[in-house]
Design brief:
Two copies of one chain form a homodimer. Chain A has 13 helices and 15 strands. By secondary structure, chain A is of the alpha/beta class. Chains A, B: Keywords: Magnesium, Transferase.
């Protein structure tokens, strides 16, 4: 049994090769939900969606989000209408008094759907509608995710990190903004001061998460701050990780992050924006997998390989290195 | 200045010929919102939408709802997901405790979006998202409608009957159901006992509605019960109509309704399911326009013409009859 902690790009890429060492039936993936937002009344869970679409064989592998070949008729029409009506475009938070009413899941992360600043495909949207309506019917995010995972034929066990709202907010020199505004709408431009996981101290890990952390845990090459950080901020998670074998894969090649804003964000949490920073970000890690061209020095066991993942063969190579590191880390 | 009261099919068809007697700039249309529902988090206003799409020149004129040539990618995907996940299809009301929370507009008419029982097109959906988000931003339905009417380039003044929730509920031998379940999902099959406009006694006419009813009023050939009935149930509307000139166009050719379930519904409110019943339904009407093949007898002025509307020429003919009837009714 193995449990992966995943964000939306690095770890999903790694999971393409997971079968090289781990049976899908014995694999659990705990997924970040700090990126989740409600937009136009729909709960969008970008990292869960990537894993659903990957597991269902319909992921757009150019972008690592959305459904391959999906149309964007509704999203385009939203821009057209906003433009014709003279309505503003870009992210628009709902008023404070509407952030939390109705669905507690919407806490601090509710956006207007006017001009829809995220590109949501038409089939993609059906997933968000189904998820949101299942929650409105009284189910939890975990339960909704389980139904969707069934629908997409997933063989791994997919768990959201929490059924409670956690919002990854980025404090920048241009103000506080949700991670999705910072990354999708502003392309990571504003200078980051700190990152806050609002709601995390009151949120509970979702059913099954703490149990899954009793198995060997692999932290994939995801952004340590905004992909893995929200999980670590949940009550009980860091303690659970301290008590099991944890292997972390570097999301850096030297000072360069493979994807996303990991570098800038590491600095914001006072960690080195490079492989060295992993030791700070993951004090509970028992071993690391780093690139064989990386000269980072650790006081913990390290397995080196080419960690660039551009194919399932690459992913399988890194998975085998993880399997070695698990042996070293025990 | 003239004000039309409209549902979603008969009166919009009539409005195609309105320019034969009335300038669009001097025309107000007050629209039924008793059919409105919230589905999958979106406020859908079917009758308003028909008038928006008609005014914008994009209405599907085969069905008189939706946008011509629209795709239904999201709607189809919702069925596919529900089927793959083993989720139920058909209308599914949200639980009682979720009917009113969050948005007061959602009162008593909230459906799950799972398997989406109404066919909502992809561009059509963008209208619902924009409307719902404008309301979530703090605007009223009237304000949202005004923005959408601007976006679609409408020249008439389009007013929802109320900014408050009114739900047309049909009490049948198979239980109480929203009009949309009765008509869209069940094709008008269940035997109707009574019709209730839940919320109407507490709802206010939308800004501008009572003022618009000071002008000459035309009640188009819409369903007297579920299209016009919700308006008449609003405080002040019947009184306002009693004080102005009102001309009503029959939605019946003898005992046959032109469209929709008008016949069955008239019986449910103890009115004759034919032109004669109009006198009962519209006691404030000063004159009627009925078909020249109709032998209904009225104690009020009547103008007869061929009232079947299959083209804008037909509509213009009926509009000219209305103009005559206004003269007779004064």
């Amino acid at each position: 049994m193995v449990t992966f902690l995943s964000g939306g790009t690095g770890t999903p890429k790694l999971l393409d090769g997971a079968a090289a060492a781990f049976s899908p039936e014995e694999t659990t993936v705990v997924v970040n939900t700090g990126d989740d937002i409600e937009i136009g009344g729909l709960l969008v869970s970008p990292d869960i969606d990537t894993l659903l679409f990957q597991g269902g064989g319909i992921l757009d592998r150019e972008t690592w989000w959305g459904i391959e070949g999906d149309t964007q008729r509704t999203n385009s029409a939203l821009s057209d209408i906003a433009s014709a009506a003279g309505l503003p475009e870009g992210p628009q938070y709902l008023p404070d008094d509407r952030q939390t009413e109705g669905r507690t899941l919407a806490n601090w992360r509710r956006f207007s759907g006017v001009a829809e600043f995220m590109t949501i495909g038409d089939r993609d949207r059906a997933v968000h509608i189904t998820r949101t309506s299942l929650i409105d019917e009284g189910k939890t995010l975990s339960e909704a995710t389980e139904r969707l995972a069934d629908a997409f034929g997933l063989t791994i066990d997919l768990l959201p990190m929490s059924d409670d709202p956690v919002a990854s907010l980025v404090h920048t020199d241009e103000g506080v903004m949700h991670f999705q505004e910072y990354w999708v709408a502003r392309r990571g431009d504003p200078a980051v001061d700190t990152v806050e996981f609002r709601g995390s101290s009151k949120a509970e890990p979702a059913p099954g998460v703490l149990e899954a952390l009793e198995d060997t845990v692999v932290i994939g090459p995801s952004n340590p701050v905004t992909s893995i950080g929200p999980m670590l901020a949940l009550p009980g998670v860091a303690d659970a990780l301290a008590q099991t074998t944890v292997v972390a894969v570097s999301p850096f090649l030297g000072d360069d992050a493979f994807s996303g804003p990991a570098g800038d964000l590491m600095e914001a949490v006072n960690a080195e924006p490079s492989t060295e920073g992993l030791a700070t970000a993951y004090p509970f890690a028992d071993a690391f997998v780093v690139d064989d061209g990386d000269d980072a020095d650790f006081d913990r066991p390290t397995v080196r390989t080419d960690i660039a993942i551009d194919s399932s063969e690459d992913a399988a190579r890194v998975i085998r290195a993880i399997d070695d590191a698990i042996e070293h880390g025990r």
